[in-house]
Amino acid sequence: MKYQKDARTVEGCLLDAMYKLAIINEEQRKQPYLFYFQRAARTDRAVSAVRQVCSMRLNFDEKLPVEGPSALNTLLPSDIRVMGIRRATRTFHAQKSCDSRTYSYTLPTYAFAKFDKLTTNSYRIEEQTLAEINELLEIFKGTHNFYNYTSRREADDKSCFRYIMGFKCDKIRLHKDEFSGQETEFLTILITGQSFMLHQIRKMIGMVISITRGFLYKSDVQRSFDAVRMDIPRAPGLGLLLEKLHYANYDRKFKNTHETLDDWGEEIEAKVTKMREEIILQEIFREESRTQS
């Protein structure tokens, strides 16, 4: 999610809708920094967001949190929804106030097939392979130098040290292609960290795939954190989803004066889950079946 003057983006669509409802003026629409507009995380091309949080300073209107979401949604494309609006503190910053971020990566399980096995729709992952993947994911947890997992950074760049709080295999599901009728097995991997660099998650997934398939060694994960340049393959952007932004510290500090930003309630969460399952994931399944990226 980021604004680009001559391209259709989620942020651009949102600003256009806000302008049409007179929530912001023309100058603010063109220069969002004028009303301190910030998003919690950026999503690159082919990467989707299940949940995104934006902060901004607006003239207070008690009707906006109640009527704003439905009014905005009537002007937004069907694949972009405003789920809720809440008043935050004056100092709240969507990105800087965020404690951590959870992403998921969904891909066909045949991506983990050994190099001497066929990578076809009929492949079904075994428990032993899942255990091997989870062992590899555990190595990434903690604080490490991830300069090999991004671009144009050196080993002595302190900003390359990132803290990974969780990394594990999640759901396995079958998707039936509507044209071929073939069923493909997909695996979702969840990762939570304080923050991530460009390409970091996709390269972490690429490393795990390479080791599981037998092209690299398990020891190469630890070696990739050392000051030795490694060429790590990057997984496609298609399966990467921004799942959730975490604001536990903010909620703890302002729980007596402001609504929580970590928990938006059962009704909103049900809508988010429905959109994730019926629109975003289905698009990933369809596109993966079509391109086999």
From TrEMBL:
Pfam families: PseudoU_synth_1. InterPro entries: PsdUridine_synth_cat_dom_sf, PsdUridine_synth_TruA, PsdUridine_synth_TruA_a/b_dom, PsdUridine_synth_TruA_C, PUS1/PUS2-like, TruA/RsuA/RluB/E/F_N. Substrate binds at Y103. Residues 139-247 form the Pseudouridine synthase I TruA alpha/beta domain. Keywords: Isomerase, tRNA processing. The keyword Zinc does not apply. GO terms for biological process: mRNA pseudouridine synthesis; tRNA pseudouridine synthesis. It comes from the Eukaryota. One of its GO terms (cellular component) is nucleus. GO terms for molecular function: pseudouridine synthase activity; RNA binding. The active site is at D44 (nucleophile). CDD domains: PseudoU_synth_PUS1_PUS2 (cd02568). Belongs to the tRNA pseudouridine synthase TruA family. This is tRNA pseudouridine synthase.
